[in-house]
Specification:
Blueprint (H helix, E strand, L loop, with lengths): L1 E3 L14 E7 L2 E6 H14 L6 H28 L4 E7 L2 E6 L5 H28 L17 H16 L7 H10 L5 H25 L3 H27 L4 H4 L7 E2 L4 H10 L4 E6 L2 E7 H11 L5 H4 L5 E3 L5 H10 L3 E6 L2 E7 H19 L10
Parallel strand pairs: 1-5, 3-4, 6-7, 9-10
Antiparallel strand pairs: 2-3, 4-5, 7-8, 10-11
Helix pairs in contact: 1-2, 2-3, 2-4, 3-4, 3-5, 5-6, 6-7, 9-10
Bound molecules: zinc ion.
Amino acid sequence: MVVSMPKQQQTPAQRAPGAVGIVRLFGVPVRFHFTFWLAVVWLIYMGASGSQTLAGTALYVIGLFVSVLLHEGGHALAARRHGIPTLEIVMLPLGGLARLERQPKPAEEFWVALSGPLVNAVLGAGLLGGIYATGGTIALSHWQQATDGNILPRLAVANLALALFNLIPAFPMDGGRVVRSLLAARRPVDVATRMTSRIGTAIAALMALYGLLSANFLLVFFAFFVYVGALQETMATSQQALMSGASVGEAMITDYRTLNHGDTLREAAALLLATSQQDFPVVAGDRVTGLLSRAALLAAMAADGPEAFVAGAMDRDFARLSPEMDLSDAAPLMAAGGNCALVFEEDRLTGMLTAENLSEFLILRKIRAERAEAPAPKEPHHG
Ligand SMILES: [Zn+2]
């Protein structure tokens, strides 16, 4: 599987909580979540039976996870070919996750998503070919009775199964991304995403129905997983689509109040009460020296009292935007700056962008887009 992370989430502390042990694959750090080790131990424990030794089972389980690791390595290498670094590969009990620095464009996504299952298909076919060439037998009975003698054929089939499973054409599976990238060649990304999500929802509904009828609750659980994947992907891309083509200048607040560098927290608190504003630019003459957020104001008020100066409480390292900037580029910067950024036109403060304002702008833009698509309402009659 592949996920991309917004820039502001890339601080090391937030990467993969609970990760234990670090190795590298093609230069990408691989982290093993501690639940992954639990799954390894559980699988080996459950797999060791009369016909299979503990060592044989361990070998098979290790082979299985190396296959998953190489699958993620495939994603990472394909992403690198398109200039997208992979932050890390996380190994989880249900599979791996390659975290990319940014979302691949539709044309790039095809190869990035396909390369994972492709690795498993090549591994599986290669193993089967190797077994066949060396005179080994490939029989269905192998997979009914696990023994130390048929580890390789079982790994071959497991790899082919991994390839097929990941190619299910639904988010968050790789197959869903492949389908989206193909559909996006002829239409906007958000339309392609909605179509892929509809396919995913239909698959999820069929799986849930079949799972319930056959009392296979693992399948019902998986159907739910696919359903949520479809919802999330649709939401993420429709936000992105709503922002595209709009500039910071269109969405920013232009009517706001500022504080003076020499003001006290008492004066700032009065302004907080009198207005609906939560963040205040602090100015000295025509220069902006900082940004005072509601949280910083309240914290300083509690610690230093109302007579302390706003200059001691404000954030001097606030996010700066320009009015021409694309909203989709500005939104992550605004989010990283504590959900507020100041907009400057050649060092002159011209506006503010906050999370609330951005969401209002997007809602309005959505309504306008829907009205433009719908047939025009009848003009009311006058006189
Ligand atoms: Zn994958």
